[in-house]
Amino acid sequence: MSWLDTLRASPAPPVAVEIAPQQVSAAAIDIRGGEAVVTAHATEALPPGALVPSLTADNAHNRLVIVEAIRRVLDETGRPRRIGLVVPDVVGKVSLLKFEQVPERIADLEQLIRWQARKTAPFAIEEAQVSFIPGLRAADGQEYIVSLARRSVIAEYEGLCAEAGAYAGIVDLATLNIINAVLATGRTPGGDLSRAESRDWLLVSVTTDYASIAILRGEHVIFFRNRTEADGTLADVVHQSAMYYEDRLSGAGFARVLVSGAAAAGARHATDIEEIRRSLQDRLTVPVESFDPRAAARLTDRIGAAPALLDTLAPLIGLLRRSES
Asked: What is the CA radius of gyration of the chain?
């Protein structure tokens, strides 16, 4: 079973954990009166260099510290034996593939996708875990959102959780789960998901080490790009993505632009984020907003809603509510 498909074949876990370079965080939600509620959360800081996310190399450079941080956040969220795990975007590679003809047998489709993915994979496809879900269907074919990761890297993260006493039955990327949190509200920034007028929207997901840009048409991802500091300024990359959207994706304009992670990423990115807000609002004449995950799962009265906490909770809520989105 592929690493992103696990959630669709099993019940949602009681707790989601995110392992990021600066911290380990966890959250639990419950359904009360038909409404999702965050019932517990915890965050433990990691020292610099303990975790260095990579697509191809070892990620954990201080296993003991990471495992102890995972153990502590699990203690604060009910000591679950089974969890969903959120990992940094740079651990995986996300691409979109389109096929004019789709094989009827799922095994044949997986073989076709693996054949196409091997052309851009930074390691042998035999070493990869590959996941795919259907994307936008158009007159010229069916698109698939494809994620691949090195099997040994995913096993490394699963092993950290196992050492802390929990089985990571689901492993998924951070930004994909922020998207899931948006979709779990039943609306997108472009309109109601149940109505035809749902429009295109842009998500900028920021961390201290990288940023990801996703463009969605309603509920379907039509563009995904991950950017590190070596790729230029964040504002430049977002501008390039918007140009590609207009020139190559028949973009008719964004209904909204969402930013997530800016508060949790810290002051080092504040100037970059403000530049993005100004340039996008001026160029695209659309509002640029910070995503608030409380629309997907409200907080109990005893949980404060600091901006950094909301950024931390977004991908965790998205994973826990993914099967509903």
From this structure: 19
